[in-house]
Amino acid sequence: MKKKLKELNEKIQKEQRGIYNVSFNEKQSTPTNADLEAIENAVIDYIVHYIKGWHNVKKIKYYFL
Questions:
Q1: How far apart are CA 57 and CA 14, in angstroms?
Q2: 1-16 pLDDT tens trace
Q3: 3-class SS at 26?
C-alpha cells in the first residue's frame, strides 16, 4: 500500500513540475493522444453539424418558396 502511495505521489509531483515548467519557464509540452483525439472528434462534430444545418430543408424552407 505504501509503495502505491509513493508511486502516486511521484506521478503527481512530476505532473506539477511539468505544469510549472510549461507555465513559467516557457517550455514546450506535447499533447497526448487522448487530447488529440478529443480535439479531432470535436472538430468533426462541428463540421458535421455545420453542414447539416445549412442543408436541412426544414430549416431553410423559405428559400425554396
A1: 53
A2: 788 888 888 988 888 8
A3: coil
**Contact assessment for residue 50 and residue 44, using Cβ atoms and an 8 Å cutoff:** no
The three cell numbers of residue 64 are: 425554396
Task: Supply angle C-alpha 62, 44, 52, rounded to 5.
Answer: 15
pLDDT tens across 39-56, in order? 888 898 888 877 766 555
Cα 35–chain centre separation:
4
Number of alpha helices (DSSP H) and beta strands (DSSP E) in the chain:
2, 0
CA-closest candidate to residue 32, choices 15, 51, 13, 9: 15
Residues 60, 26: Cα–Cα separation, whole Å: 48
Single-letter residue type at 34:
A
